[in-house]
């Protein structure tokens, strides 16, 4: 569905996209994760033909990016692109007109899209009277109204409370079930973990690692991770190292990689003589992979 080859973009002397390659298969949810300034929005703007790359190729549905490919794409930008004094319906009508939908299709699509984002009962409400979560869903509806094949969601849940986030996650799952291809950018690693078939880790305009969560997990030689709370961190590290546990700090959390899973009592026995407040076991998560991959770079 989307193929990006050797993409480069600089602003003056600063290279912000460096030899970027990625592809997204039809029906896939692909998560592009990276810190502020990694190059996510620049990449999206190039895909949407809003910005010209210095070099490289992008095809969408086998067509090179051009004004013609804009109709295949639906984008929900980071900042809501909505007219606050207009109703939900009027906003969708405005964007449907831009995409040239005829009257009949437009009416049908507005109704179906509002239903899809669970806002049918607020069709006549001005945007400014909607909650933040509802406005975010309407922003996604704008991206869907012309039935695009590829939907780009740029940080769709940033700044939302957990319930509004759950609603958007559910909406993304429904879109996937309908076979829509999705490119999702996010800072929220748990969001990428839950929703994405494949994830690309972007730093300084380069993909450092890419794959399904299972594939990315193979980058860390740990079968399991334990988080240990203790006032005797140095002693715990010395002791655990003797037993082959690899110490790491994620934030201020003392963590160890275990090369194979052990029974809890076996784990506890490795810290004999040390006052341990708690031990929590976790599978290797995207957070750990992200930290390792971006720090190594
Ligand atoms: P965020 O998560 O904060 O949105 P991002 O990953 O989307 O970040 P971009 O907005 O693509 O990152 O920015 C990538 C780099 O390009 C940054 O260093 C940014 O400062 C720079 N940049 C973006 N737009 C311009 C511009 N118009 N002129 C100069 N530099 C720019």
TrEMBL record:
Question: Per its record, what are the GO molecular function terms?
Answer: ATP binding; ATP hydrolysis activity
Which PROSITE patterns does this chain map to?
ABC_TRANSPORTER_1, ABC_TRANSPORTER_2
Which keywords fit this entry according to its UniProt record?
Answer: ATP-binding, Nucleotide-binding
User: Secretion signal: which residues?
Assistant: none
Any Pfam family hit: ABC_tran
Q: Which domain of life is it from?
A: Bacteria
InterPro entries named among the record's database cross-references: AAA+_ATPase, ABC_transporter-like_ATP-bd, ABC_transporter-like_CS, P-loop_NTPase
Q: In its keyword annotation, does this UniProt entry include Chaperone?
A: no
Q: Domain named ABC transporter: which ranges?
A: 2-229
The answer, when asked if Transport is one of the entry's keywords, is: no
SUPFAM superfamilies given for it? P-loop containing nucleoside triphosphate hydrolases (SSF52540)
Q: What is this protein called?
A: ABC transporter ATP-binding protein
Species the sequence originates in: Komarekiella delphini-convector SJRDD-AB1
**Source species taxonomy:** Bacteria, Bacillati, Cyanobacteriota, Cyanophyceae, Nostocales
């Amino acid at each position: 569905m989307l193929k990006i080859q050797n993409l480069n973009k600089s602003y003056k002397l600063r290279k912000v996209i460096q030899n970027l390659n990625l592809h997204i298969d039809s029906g896939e949810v692909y998560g592009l994760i990276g810190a502020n300034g990694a190059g996510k929005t620049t990449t999206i703007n190039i895909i949407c033909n809003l910005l010209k790359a210095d070099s490289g190729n992008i095809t969408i549905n086998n067509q090179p990016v051009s004004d013609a490919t804009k109709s295949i794409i639906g984008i929900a930008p980071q900042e809501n692109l909505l007219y606050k004094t207009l109703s939900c319906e009027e906003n969708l009508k405005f964007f449907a007109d831009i995409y040239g939908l005829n009257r009949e299709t437009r009416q049908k699509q507005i109704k179906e899209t509002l239903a899809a984002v669970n806002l049918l009962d607020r069709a006549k409400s001005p945007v400014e009277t909607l909650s933040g979560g509802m406005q975010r869903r309407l922003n996604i509806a704008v991206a869907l109204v012309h039935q695009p094949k590829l939907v780009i969601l740029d940080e769709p849940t940033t700044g939302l409370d957990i319930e509004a986030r759950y609603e958007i996650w559910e909406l993304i799952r429904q879109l996937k079930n309908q076979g829509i291809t999705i490119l999702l950018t996010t800072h929220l690693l748990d969001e990428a973990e839950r929703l994405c078939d494949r994830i690309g880790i972007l730093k300084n305009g380069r993909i450092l690692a890419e794959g399904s969560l299972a594939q990315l997990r193979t980058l860390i030689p740990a079968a399991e991770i334990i988080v240990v709370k203790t006032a005797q961190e140095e002693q715990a590290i010395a002791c655990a190292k003797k037993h082959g546990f690899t110490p790491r700090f994620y934030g201020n959390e003392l963590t160890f990689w275990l090369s194979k899973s052990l029974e809890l009592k076996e784990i506890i026995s490795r810290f004999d003589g040390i006052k341990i407040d708690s031990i929590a076991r976790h599978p290797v998560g995207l957070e750990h992979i992200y930290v390792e991959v971006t720090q190594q770079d």
